[in-house]
Amino acid sequence: RAKSAGGNRFELADPEADARAITRHGLTTALPAALERGEFFIEYQPLVHLGDGRVHGAEALVRWSHPQHGVLGPDHFIPLAEHTGLIVPLGRWVLQEAVRQARSWHEQADRDRSAPPLRINVNLSPTQLHHPGLVADTVDVLERSGLPPGALCLEVTESALIGADEDLLKPLRQLAEMGVDIALDDFGTGYSNLANLRRLPVSVLKLDRSFTQGMQQHPADPVDRKIVEGIVSLAHSLELAVTVEGVETGVQAEQLRQLGCDTAQGWYYARPGPPDRLHTLSLADAV
Ligand code: C2E
Ligand code: MG
Ligand code: MG
Ligand code: MG
To answer: Which residues cross the membrane (predicted)?
Structure first.
């Protein structure tokens, strides 16, 4: 904000921007201790089959229970953790915790003999992708938990893989060969070359929420429908499954189902929440 005084124009710092910078700085320096003190926790959001509405897994979404600011969503601290490198130990913790949780759902499913074993999706940020320990850490977490690799899906954003060279893809390829699914998150926002998809070791496309929003009117804009139809048909021809994000209404769910999307995630089904609810949800649709 510019202010003039005594005829001389000079810039006064924006007090709100200052406050934000101070908060950011405070959060950044508090991150390592927060991890040690166990202030992070994970919420789980169900992924459902569009065909029959059954829960088939969940995405792990990290939160920070900050002693002064209350519960903070990932957008408030993941970029900071990325910047400082704390994302590596934090991401390892999320993976370990989410995989342990999935293993416990599998054990419950064995006992109940009714609920299907749920799959778990975990987000990876670009720094984690570049970290040399990624494959070893993942193998270690899976082995110690006893969760089959096929029950884990790692989500990488489309933008993190744009222009990725073989060095970057190699760890993902290794994980995919072990049976871990790799999903391309927020697909459709990154302007990636569609032909490039063939070269990536991915098995799932997560269509960005902006496409879901375009399905709110019924019938949806014909161009929007054609775009989704085209992506789905391309994905299926490459043997990729299509998940849609941000489904908030039945109108969206029905139109996306008709366009051939395989699975969905969003508030229409459930908000992210505590892990115990997932098993109950999947038992409920098994009846
Ligand atoms: P994402 O992976 O694309 O996750 C989906 C986001 O959409 C989540 O936001 C989720 O709460 C939100 N969402 C789900 N359903 C709906 C809906 O129907 N409508 C709307 N408007 N939103 C919906 P959240 O939890 O705030 O996470 C934001 C992003 O933070 C995630 O986007 C992901 O990129 C990142 N993130 C979350 N957890 C982790 C993590 O453990 N590690 C890393 N590296 N990133 C994470
Ligand atoms: Mg995700
Ligand atoms: Mg996403
Ligand atoms: Mg998203």
So the answer is: none
Indicate if ligand 1 lies below 6 Å from the C-beta of 141: no
State the pLDDT confidence band at 40, using cuts at 50, 70 and 90.
very high
Q: Is the pLDDT confidence value at 114 over 80?
A: no
For every residue of the chain, DSSP letters joined together read -EEEETTEEEEPP-HHHHHHHHHHHHHHHHHHHHHHHT-EEEEEEEEEETTT--EEEEEEEEEEEETTTEEE-HHHHHHHHHHHTTHHHHHHHHHHHHHHHHHHHHHHHHHHSSSPPPEEEEEE-HHHHH-TTHHHHHHHHHHHHT--GGGEEEEEEHHHHTT--HHHHHHHHHHHHHT-EEEEEEETSS---GGGGGGS---EEEE-HHHHHTTSSSSPPHHHHHHHHHHHHHHHHTT-EEEE----SHHHHHHHHHTT--EE-STTT--SB-THHHHHHHHHTT-
Does ligand 1 lie within 6 Å of residue 216's CB atom? no
Q: Give ipTM to 2 decimals.
A: 0.98
